[in-house]
Amino acid sequence: MCECQECIHERICAIWQSQECQNASCYVDDCFEPKLKTADEMFREMGFIRNTSICYNDTHILYEKDVMNGTDIESVEFKDGKWLFTTTFRTPMLTSGPITRAVYKKMQELGWLDEMGVE
Description:
By secondary structure, this protein is of the alpha+beta class. The chain has helices spanning about 10-20, 30, 40-45, 95-110, 110-115, and strands spanning about 50, 60-65, 70-80, 80-85.
C-alpha cells in the first residue's frame, strides 16, 4: 500500500503503484522524482554479474548468475538485436517478470526497440 497517504502526490503514487505493482512510496522522495534503474542495476539486484572479459563489449553483452551452488550458471546474452536466457548447458529457461523488465530495459538502452519501431 502507498505510504504517502497525506502527501500531495497521492493520486500519482496510486498510478505508479497500479502500474508497477510495488510500493509507490519509493517514487515520492524529493517531491516525486522517480528513481529509474538501469538494466545493469536491475540485473545486479537479481544476482547477475555483467561479464566484462575481452569477448564482450557494448554490443555483445553477457550477464551471468551462479545457481545451485556452482553447478550451473544462468546467463542473459544480448547480441545483434537478439537476446537469450539460458543455463550453462543452453537449456531454455522460463522467464520471470523481473527478467523480462530488465531485458526490455537493456533493449531500450541499446536502441533496439527504436530500430524495431517499438515505443
